Protein backbone atom coordinates (compact mmCIF):
# COMPACT_ATOMS: atom_id res chain seq x y z
CA UNK A 1 0.00 0.00 0.00
CA UNK A 2 1.06 3.54 -0.76
CA UNK A 3 2.55 5.08 2.44
CA UNK A 4 0.34 8.18 2.28
CA UNK A 5 -2.72 5.98 1.91
CA UNK A 6 -1.59 3.87 4.88
CA UNK A 7 -1.34 6.97 7.12
CA UNK A 8 -4.65 8.33 5.86
CA UNK A 9 -6.57 5.12 6.51
CA UNK A 10 -4.99 4.72 9.97
CA UNK A 11 -5.95 8.28 10.94
CA UNK A 12 -9.57 7.80 9.87
CA UNK A 13 -9.86 5.22 12.71
CA UNK A 14 -9.69 8.13 15.17
CA UNK A 15 -12.93 9.57 13.85
CA UNK A 16 -15.85 8.75 16.15
CA UNK A 17 -19.61 9.04 15.86
CA UNK A 18 -20.90 12.56 16.48
CA UNK A 19 -17.56 14.29 15.99
CA UNK A 20 -16.98 17.56 14.19
CA UNK A 21 -13.96 16.70 12.03
CA UNK A 22 -11.55 19.07 10.28
CA UNK A 23 -10.75 17.60 6.88
CA UNK A 24 -7.28 18.54 5.64
CA UNK A 25 -5.97 19.16 2.14
CA UNK A 26 -3.44 17.43 -0.09
CA UNK A 27 -2.68 14.01 -1.50
CA UNK A 28 -2.37 12.32 1.92
CA UNK A 29 -5.48 13.96 3.37
CA UNK A 30 -7.36 12.87 0.24
CA UNK A 31 -6.93 9.21 1.26
CA UNK A 32 -8.22 10.01 4.76
CA UNK A 33 -11.28 11.81 3.36
CA UNK A 34 -11.98 8.82 1.08
CA UNK A 35 -11.82 6.51 4.11
CA UNK A 36 -14.11 8.73 6.20
CA UNK A 37 -16.53 8.72 3.26
CA UNK A 38 -16.34 4.93 3.13
CA UNK A 39 -17.02 4.62 6.85
CA UNK A 40 -20.06 6.89 6.55
CA UNK A 41 -21.43 4.82 3.70
CA UNK A 42 -20.57 1.33 4.93
CA UNK A 43 -20.51 1.67 8.73
CA UNK A 44 -23.18 4.34 9.21
CA UNK A 45 -20.66 6.69 10.85
CA UNK A 46 -22.26 10.06 11.57
CA UNK A 47 -20.01 13.13 11.58
CA UNK A 48 -19.91 16.74 10.49
CA UNK A 49 -16.92 17.73 8.37
CA UNK A 50 -15.25 21.14 8.26
CA UNK A 51 -13.13 21.42 5.12
CA UNK A 52 -9.84 23.31 4.78
CA UNK A 53 -10.03 24.07 1.04
CA UNK A 54 -12.38 24.19 -1.92
CA UNK A 55 -10.63 21.07 -3.25
CA UNK A 56 -11.44 19.07 -0.11
CA UNK A 57 -14.95 20.53 -0.05
CA UNK A 58 -15.56 19.17 -3.57
CA UNK A 59 -14.21 15.73 -2.60
CA UNK A 60 -16.22 15.58 0.64
CA UNK A 61 -19.41 16.62 -1.15
CA UNK A 62 -18.89 13.95 -3.79
CA UNK A 63 -18.62 11.35 -0.99
CA UNK A 64 -21.77 12.59 0.76
CA UNK A 65 -19.94 13.80 3.90
CA UNK A 66 -22.18 16.33 5.73
CA UNK A 67 -20.33 19.66 5.96
CA UNK A 68 -20.48 22.89 7.93
CA UNK A 69 -18.40 26.04 7.76
CA UNK A 70 -15.90 26.72 10.55
CA UNK A 71 -18.15 29.67 11.43
CA UNK A 72 -21.16 27.41 12.03
CA UNK A 73 -19.60 25.03 14.56
CA UNK A 74 -18.67 25.77 18.20
CA UNK A 75 -15.28 24.02 17.83
CA UNK A 76 -13.71 21.13 15.95
CA UNK A 77 -13.14 17.86 17.84
CA UNK A 78 -10.37 16.57 15.64
CA UNK A 79 -8.58 17.77 12.52
CA UNK A 80 -6.65 15.36 10.32
CA UNK A 81 -4.31 16.98 7.83
CA UNK A 82 -1.09 16.40 5.91
CA UNK A 83 2.21 18.25 6.43
CA UNK A 84 5.23 19.10 4.31
CA UNK A 85 7.84 18.60 7.03
CA UNK A 86 7.77 17.59 10.71
CA UNK A 87 10.86 18.27 12.80
CA UNK A 88 12.28 16.15 15.61
CA UNK A 89 10.47 18.40 18.13
CA UNK A 90 7.17 18.07 16.23
CA UNK A 91 6.94 21.52 14.74
CA UNK A 92 5.72 21.51 11.18
CA UNK A 93 5.44 23.28 7.89
CA UNK A 94 2.37 23.17 5.70
CA UNK A 95 0.99 24.90 2.65
CA UNK A 96 2.56 22.93 -0.18
CA UNK A 97 -0.98 22.70 -1.52
CA UNK A 98 -1.60 26.44 -0.96
CA UNK A 99 -4.30 25.81 1.65
CA UNK A 100 -2.31 26.96 4.71
CA UNK A 101 -4.60 29.82 5.74
CA UNK A 102 -7.80 27.80 6.00
CA UNK A 103 -5.83 24.84 7.38
CA UNK A 104 -4.41 27.03 10.16
CA UNK A 105 -7.81 28.54 10.96
CA UNK A 106 -9.40 25.08 11.29
CA UNK A 107 -6.42 23.75 13.30
CA UNK A 108 -6.63 26.73 15.67
CA UNK A 109 -10.19 25.84 16.70
CA UNK A 110 -9.51 22.09 16.94
CA UNK A 111 -9.19 20.23 20.23
CA UNK A 112 -6.84 17.71 18.60
CA UNK A 113 -4.77 17.66 15.42
CA UNK A 114 -3.45 14.56 13.71
CA UNK A 115 -0.86 14.98 10.96
CA UNK A 116 -0.53 12.20 8.44
CA UNK A 117 2.70 11.85 6.48
CA UNK A 118 4.93 9.34 4.79
CA UNK A 119 8.30 8.79 6.46
CA UNK A 120 10.14 11.12 4.03
CA UNK A 121 8.47 14.11 5.75
CA UNK A 122 10.09 13.41 9.15
CA UNK A 123 13.21 15.61 9.37
CA UNK A 124 15.66 16.79 12.01
CA UNK A 125 15.15 20.51 11.25
CA UNK A 126 12.57 22.30 9.11
CA UNK A 127 13.47 24.25 5.98
CA UNK A 128 14.42 21.97 3.09
CA UNK A 129 10.86 22.17 1.83
CA UNK A 130 10.11 25.78 0.79
CA UNK A 131 8.15 27.69 3.43
CA UNK A 132 4.97 29.24 1.99
CA UNK A 133 3.91 32.73 2.99
CA UNK A 134 0.41 33.81 1.98
CA UNK A 135 0.31 37.49 1.07
CA UNK A 136 -2.12 40.13 -0.11
CA UNK A 137 -1.52 40.76 -3.86
CA UNK A 138 -1.25 44.53 -3.30
CA UNK A 139 2.33 45.10 -2.14
CA UNK A 140 3.46 41.55 -2.86
CA UNK A 141 6.38 42.78 -5.02
CA UNK A 142 7.59 44.83 -2.05
CA UNK A 143 7.48 41.73 0.14
CA UNK A 144 9.43 39.79 -2.52
CA UNK A 145 12.13 42.51 -2.45
CA UNK A 146 12.20 42.47 1.35
CA UNK A 147 12.55 38.68 1.50
CA UNK A 148 15.27 38.82 -1.19
CA UNK A 149 17.22 41.32 0.93
CA UNK A 150 16.84 39.05 3.96
CA UNK A 151 18.40 36.19 1.95
CA UNK A 152 15.23 34.07 1.98
CA UNK A 153 15.36 33.27 -1.79
CA UNK A 154 11.65 34.04 -2.31
CA UNK A 155 9.69 32.78 -5.31
CA UNK A 156 6.16 33.86 -6.19
CA UNK A 157 4.24 30.63 -6.68
CA UNK A 158 2.95 30.01 -10.20
CA UNK A 159 0.83 27.23 -11.70
CA UNK A 160 1.86 24.90 -14.55
CA UNK A 161 0.52 27.45 -17.08
CA UNK A 162 2.74 30.18 -15.49
CA UNK A 163 -0.23 32.04 -14.02
CA UNK A 164 0.17 33.26 -10.43
CA UNK A 165 -1.42 30.86 -7.95
CA UNK A 166 -4.42 32.41 -6.19
CA UNK A 167 -5.40 30.82 -2.89
CA UNK A 168 -8.95 30.06 -1.77
CA UNK A 169 -8.73 33.28 0.24
CA UNK A 170 -7.79 35.29 -2.88
CA UNK A 171 -4.12 35.79 -1.99
CA UNK A 172 -0.70 35.00 -3.50
CA UNK A 173 1.89 32.57 -2.14
CA UNK A 174 5.57 33.45 -1.80
CA UNK A 175 7.73 30.37 -1.18
CA UNK A 176 10.86 30.97 0.90
CA UNK A 177 13.76 28.67 -0.01
CA UNK A 178 15.49 28.70 3.36
CA UNK A 179 17.17 25.25 3.39
CA UNK A 180 17.30 25.27 7.21
CA UNK A 181 15.13 27.10 9.76
CA UNK A 182 17.27 27.43 12.88
CA UNK A 183 14.62 29.18 14.98
CA UNK A 184 11.05 28.54 13.75
CA UNK A 185 9.49 30.57 16.59
CA UNK A 186 11.58 33.67 15.81
CA UNK A 187 10.89 33.36 12.07
CA UNK A 188 7.15 32.89 12.68
CA UNK A 189 7.06 35.95 14.94
CA UNK A 190 8.92 38.02 12.33
CA UNK A 191 6.56 36.96 9.50
CA UNK A 192 3.47 37.50 11.68
CA UNK A 193 4.21 41.19 12.08
CA UNK A 194 4.84 42.02 8.40
CA UNK A 195 2.18 44.16 6.74
CA UNK A 196 0.62 42.30 3.82
CA UNK A 197 1.46 38.84 5.18
CA UNK A 198 -1.80 37.03 5.81
CA UNK A 199 -0.34 33.78 7.18
CA UNK A 200 2.72 31.55 6.92
CA UNK A 201 3.23 27.83 6.79
CA UNK A 202 4.93 27.39 10.16
CA UNK A 203 2.52 25.39 12.31
CA UNK A 204 4.05 25.60 15.77
CA UNK A 205 2.81 23.67 18.82
CA UNK A 206 -0.20 22.51 16.82
CA UNK A 207 0.01 18.76 16.29
CA UNK A 208 -1.11 16.33 19.02
CA UNK A 209 -0.62 13.05 17.13
CA UNK A 210 1.56 12.16 14.15
CA UNK A 211 0.84 9.11 12.02
CA UNK A 212 3.73 8.11 9.78
CA UNK A 213 3.28 5.69 6.92
CA UNK A 214 6.37 3.48 6.66
CA UNK A 215 7.57 0.23 5.12
CA UNK A 216 6.76 -1.64 8.37
CA UNK A 217 3.26 -0.21 8.73
CA UNK A 218 1.83 2.97 10.23
CA UNK A 219 3.61 4.41 13.28
CA UNK A 220 1.61 6.58 15.68
CA UNK A 221 3.38 9.15 17.82
CA UNK A 222 1.53 10.97 20.61
CA UNK A 223 2.97 14.45 21.11
CA UNK A 224 2.89 15.76 24.69
CA UNK A 225 2.26 19.52 24.88
C1 LIG B 1 -1.75 21.85 1.74
C2 LIG B 1 -0.92 21.19 2.76
C3 LIG B 1 -0.72 19.72 2.63
O1 LIG B 1 -1.30 19.09 3.70
C4 LIG B 1 0.76 19.44 2.57
O2 LIG B 1 1.30 20.19 1.48
C5 LIG B 1 1.04 17.96 2.35
O3 LIG B 1 0.57 17.58 1.09
P1 LIG B 1 0.70 16.10 0.54
O4 LIG B 1 -0.07 15.22 1.46
O5 LIG B 1 0.10 16.17 -0.84
O6 LIG B 1 2.16 15.75 0.48
O7 LIG B 1 -0.43 21.78 3.69
O8 LIG B 1 -1.73 23.25 1.89
UniProtKB/TrEMBL annotation:
It is an enzyme of class 5 (isomerase). InterPro entries: NagB/RpiA_transferase-like (IPR037171), Ribose-5P_isomerase (IPR050262), Ribose5P_isomerase_typA_subgr (IPR020672), Ribose5P_isomerase_type_A (IPR004788). Keywords: Isomerase. Signal peptide: none annotated. Substrate binds at residues 25-28, 81-84, 94-97, 121. Belongs to the ribose 5-phosphate isomerase family. Catalyzes the reversible conversion of ribose-5-phosphate to ribulose 5-phosphate. This is Ribose-5-phosphate isomerase A.
Amino acid sequence: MNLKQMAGIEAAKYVEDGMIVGLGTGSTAKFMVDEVGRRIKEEGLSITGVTTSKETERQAQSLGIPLKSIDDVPYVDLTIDGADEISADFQGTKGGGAALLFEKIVATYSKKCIWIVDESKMVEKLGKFPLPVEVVPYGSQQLLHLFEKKGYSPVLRTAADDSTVITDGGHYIIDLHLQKIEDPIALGTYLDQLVGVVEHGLFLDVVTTVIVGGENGPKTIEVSR
